[in-house]
Amino acid sequence: MMKIVTPTGKVIEVPETVESDISYFHPQDLQGALRFYRREGYVVIRGLLSPELCDQIRQAYRTEVRPSRTPILRQKNMRYERNRFDGDGFLANPIFNLQDLESRRFGGFKAAALEGLTHADVAAVTAALVGTLRTKIIQTMFFEAPAGTWAHQDSYYQDSATALGRCVAGWFALEDIDAGAGRFYVCPRSHTLMPLLRNAGELDFATGHERYQAAVLEAIQRHDLGWQAPCLRKGDVIFWSSLTVHGSLKAERPGVSRTSLTAHYLPEQDEMLQFHTRIRPQKLMPHNGMAVARLHDQDEWRNRLVRAVAANAPDTYAAARRFAMRMLFLAGRMRRSPALPPDAVA
Ligand SMILES: O=C(O)CCC(=O)C(=O)O
User: Fold this and answer.
1) Are strands 168-173 and 135-143 parallel, antiparallel or unpaired?
2) Domains of the chain and CATH, by start
């Protein structure tokens, strides 16, 4: 076990090996996994992706994405940026919505990653967890370096417009993840033990995002929540509910990466609710029989134009985005009744 200090200052023990971790589930035991997920708000499925597919995705990343100088939309700041690498040579600005990457440049990486995220076994698990026949992907990410992502509930950013809590997300380990590589963590049972923090008022995304981040940490302490940062080997996947508090730890050891994909799934028929404020229409394209949402599809010239403007005038683009966000929340406040569906745990 490795002792790690969490963002609230609490010291936790992070398992270095599968043997020293809680016993989780194999893809065959879906009923057991579902019971655990409902109770704990997360579940780990071991060996959901084959090691060969994980290697293929990493290889495509190395040959197509790493050497590229094309600006790509990033998870941390929603800006179009070129690749940046940390002191260990790992990609420091995680990719947002890899399904939107330009096929001409990144087609191999995109196809391999989507092969994993839409795999029939993944489709079966996500459908079982949200209690539907078919799921669709509404958002994805790719990580290599430790990210130290702030604690949050996904619902604050996106959820189902039918009922909050019907979104399930997965973090797919594409290599064995070292205990010191900025492990992904969850606060077990937070989906039922603490209330959902709404994207509204002084915590709204446009003006109160930092207050929101502090409020989540405060809620973790107030409700005395625990922390789990499971040991994930290549091909293992951790799934969590959009009401479950989660994030990732800071790097504790130099020289170790956390190559991974994440994807957020909704029941196929549900619309996506963004920022607890508006229904976000999405263009859906099938992959492996699963619908995958495209929001900034770089195969469309209009979106490449936006990318060119955003990459060449990043501050102007960011200011325009901030302004649009403020208008969105102002409009929501003027309506005085944001279109919020009821809280519900899938
Ligand atoms: O791995 C990370 O750093 C964070 C991933 C995450 O929070 C998400 O996909 O919602």
Assistant:
1) unpaired
2) 2-335 (2.60.120.620)
